[in-house]
Amino acid sequence: MFNFTATPLRSLLTAAPRAVPTARAFSSSASRSVARAILTGRIAMAPEMGSTSVGDVVRYTLVTRVGGKNSTVAPQFWRITAFMSEGDQRDFLLSLDKGTRMYVEGDLSIKKYQDKDGEQKSSVGIVQRTFEVLGSPNWSSTSEGSEEGEVPSE
């Protein structure tokens, strides 16, 4: 014979909650938010050297568009910051001309600031991890399906 004990459902539902684990079970690294970006576009402004408290940086602007030259969608301008030590790769990046087609991978960086009227604003930039040159600024050699036309001004 079975002996059934009636346990009210309400007492099971109001039981003390279990402790939530602090680390993710599927990763050995600490949990943190990372927003990655992958862009293909053309250099809108030639890369320039700059310096920060961390070290030297190369800054440039990449323009991306959806739908090519005749699209009604406005082009997007992305400010790219590359933390690069002195060397061939930095010199190569600095030598690229406006209009060079590039592939860039990086992390999104959101900066908040106050404009001259005192309003809070935010700006999205990309901290470059890797890049690859996909083509020269020679516009006549663009293939079908790629971005065509001139780099629009900001």
Descriptive key words:
OB fold (Dihydrolipoamide Acetyltransferase, E2P); 2 helices; 5 strands; 154 residues; mainly beta
Describe the overall structure.
This is SsDNA binding protein. Pfam families: SSB. The radius of gyration is 25 Å and the shape is globular. By secondary structure, the protein is mostly beta strands. The protein has a five-stranded mixed barrel with strand order 1-2-3-5-4. It has helices spanning 9-13, 88-95; strands spanning 36-51, 56-64, 76-83, 101-114, 120-135. It starts with 8 loop residues before the first helix and ends in a 19-residue tail after the last strand. It has a domain at 34-137: Nucleic acid-binding proteins (OB fold (Dihydrolipoamide Acetyltransferase, E2P)), CATH 2.40.50.140. The protein is 8% helix and 41% strand. The longest helix has 8 residues, at 88-95. The chain has two helices and five strands; from the N terminus they run αβββαββ.
